[in-house]
Design goal:
With 438 residues, this protein is α/β, with parallel strands linked by helices. It has 17 helices and twelve strands. The strands form three sheets. It has an eight-stranded mixed sheet, with helices on both faces. Strands 4-5 form a two-stranded antiparallel sheet. A hairpin with a 2-residue loop joins β4 and β5.
Length: 438
């Protein structure tokens, strides 16, 4: 197999260990930049139901569909997603009648995943009628309790908007299943539009000058979209081929706590990226409206997540789990005063410790010859590239996986701070393809 040629700009930013990895895996790397829209949520924006909630870290329905076809996955298999997010993998597999199971540590993610298939059961016109019923209740209900001790909740909304949202929440809670969950799903999907915040990069950012929507108007539009999608689902036949999947809150670092039922034959997933991603901040509005009662519960959830964020805590016995990570961590600690956050070395250490544990767990539960298809993003700190795709691949080899391919799906830019100091150097987002040895 021909080696993938390294660019000159890459070689100048490689440490010795990174250079070794790039050389080792160059024969298994290839570009497929047509996949760029499939490894992001953009590929879902026109699809029924999947377009209703913008879970920005998701990949596309057709990404999963492509790999199910390529791997020849059938009804005899079990598809597993250990970072299920909004449930694209499970939903896609189930629409093809393929058994699927997923877990996620974020309760919001599990809720979204569980709720998506409920739209397949609803008759056209039903949601519009229930929306009118809810609108008539608003003036008669008390505002729902929320986690107001979380700082962002005190500034994300105007006082009137927050009060109206809390009343909508109470009215929706009065519904019976499945409409309660469906309307909560729609309610969560409009919180951004009604707030001064936006999901920007790794954070939830405040924009005081943002034009916000009225909750009633935003929900009315979302209900109209949902009604349109319910009709499209029937035209596409998803409601006829669908096979229910299973999903639960769980931690992929401890799969012994999860009742999988049987061994998965394929994993299609994407973990949090090693770039300060804190899902409890990005989705804090949704969490504070329903899933946590106060800041201590939100903080506890944050510290239970895979450690991809800067509040990651590292014990004294934890050390970088790969030589390339060790090189970068040691370099960053020397230059800690130059970092925009001095906790980045701890985050990188913790992230790869956690991912190594996840890979170990996958090895234990997968069937022999099972495949892992995983979307990962490389990172760059203080001008130094860290090839997450290659590091995780070598970790997987050490656990008994064969690295079949590393597909470069797209190149991404850097932060303005990085570009100002080190120039514009693209960072690749890749799809790693591993196979478990027997």
């Amino acid at each position: 197999m021909k080696k993938l040629k390294l660019f000159d700009w890459e070689e100048d930013n490689f440490t010795p260990e990174v250079r070794r990895l790039e050389e080792k895996y160059s024969v298994r790397m290839r570009r497929d930049l047509q996949m760029s829209k499939l490894v992001s949520y953009v590929g879902n924006k026109d699809l029924p139901v999947l377009r209703l909630y913008r879970y920005k870290e998701a990949f596309a329905f057709y990404f999963v569909d492509k790999w199910l076809t390529r791997l020849g996955v059938t009804k005899e298999d079990l598809v597993f997603d250990p970072f299920c997010g909004m449930g694209t993998t499970l939903f896609t597999a189930s629409c093809r009648g393929i058994p699927a199971f997923g877990i996620d540590r974020l309760p919001l993610a599990v809720f979204i995943t569980k709720t998506l298939p409920l739209f397949l059961q609803i008759h056209p016109g039903k949601l519009s009628a229930i929306f009118e019923h809810l609108r008539a209740l608003l003036s008669k209900v008390e505002p729902a309790p929320i986690a107001m001790d979380v700082a962002i909740m005190r500034v994300a909304f105007s006082a009137d908007t927050l009060m109206e949202l809390r009343r909508w929440k109470t009215a929706i809670e009065s519904l019976h299943s499945p409409f309660r969950d469906i309307f909560l799903f729609l309610f969560f999907s409009v919180l951004d539009a009604c707030s001064y915040t936006s999901k920007d990069g790794q954070f939830l950012r405040l924009h005081r000058g943002k034009r916000v929507c009225k909750p009633e108007d935003a929900l009315a539009r979302k209900v109209r979209n949902a009604e349109e999608d319910i009709r499209r689902i029937r035209d596409w036949g998803w409601d006829k081929t669908y096979l229910p999947f299973r999903v639960t809150v769980g931690d992929t670092r401890r799969l012994g706590d999860i009742a999988l039922g049987r061994s998965p034959t394929v994993i299609i997933t994407s973990p949090p990226y090693a770039n300060r991603y804190d899902y409890t901040r990005t989705y804090s509005l949704e969490l504070c409206f329903h899933f946590v009662r106060n800041f201590p519960e939100l903080r506890a959830l944050r510290h239970s997540m895979l450690r991809s964020h800067i509040e990651a805590k590292v014990s004294d016995c934890e050390q970088p789990s790969h030589p390339a990570v060790k090189e970068l961590v040691e370099s960053l600690r020397i230059r800690s005063k130059q970092l925009n956050n001095p906790k980045i070395p701890d985050m990188l250490t913790a992230y790869f410790v956690d991912m190594q544990k996840a890979i170990e767990e996958w090895k234990q539960v997968l069937t022999p010859s099972a495949h892992v298809i995983m979307v990962v993003d490389n990172v760059r700190f203080e001008g130094q590239m860290l090839p997450v795709d290659l590091i995780l691949s070598e970790m997987a080899e050490q656990q008994g996986f064969t690295v079949e391919e590393i597909i470069i799906a797209r190149y991404k830019g850097n932060s303005s701070q990085q570009m100002g100091r080190y120039g514009r150097l693209p960072v690749r987002e890749s799809v790693v393809v591993w196979r478990r040895e027997g």
